[in-house]
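For the sake of transparency, this paper describes our internal protein records without simplification. The tokens are whole numbers drawn from a learned vocabulary of local backbone shapes. One such record is reproduced below, unchanged from the form in which we store it.

. . .
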Amino acid sequence: MTKNQQPFLVVFSGLPGTGKTTISTMLAAALHAVYLRIDTIEQAMRAAGAKQIGPSGYAVANGLARANLLLGHSIVADCVNPVRESRLGWGKVAAEASAELINIHLICSDAAEHRRRVDERSADIPGHRLPNWSSVMRHMFEPRDDDHLLLDTATMTLADLVECCTTYVTSKLDRS
């Protein structure tokens, strides 16, 4: 980000096991952006004694994003983001901070590969319980009607996925 450029908010969405964390952390590092992960926030809330998380994790993430955007820091957010309400929340944050909202949605079209990823991954957040395959398949994902980049992580290399995301973000910022 150049000194005169407004901060931006990149929101990664998709089911668990599609590659959001891997790709979003690499993109955040490449763009020198603050990285926010819903799983980290929600696990911290559980560790602090919260019994029910519900939309509270997204509310905390939205608040952290807003505060950092207002300080001029760009954000890369990593979340499932399955419902219109959560997507509208990110849009509201970006608007309040005069930041460009950039949505990236990841899927894995190869069910066997997706299941392998879900079954073989290990928790990287202390105390975090990863969802199993049946839990991932029960996720309800409302259709999208917003502007977003859709990437299939089963059909591209990791390097190509990160490059595609970087190019997309850059193109969105060049147009704003």
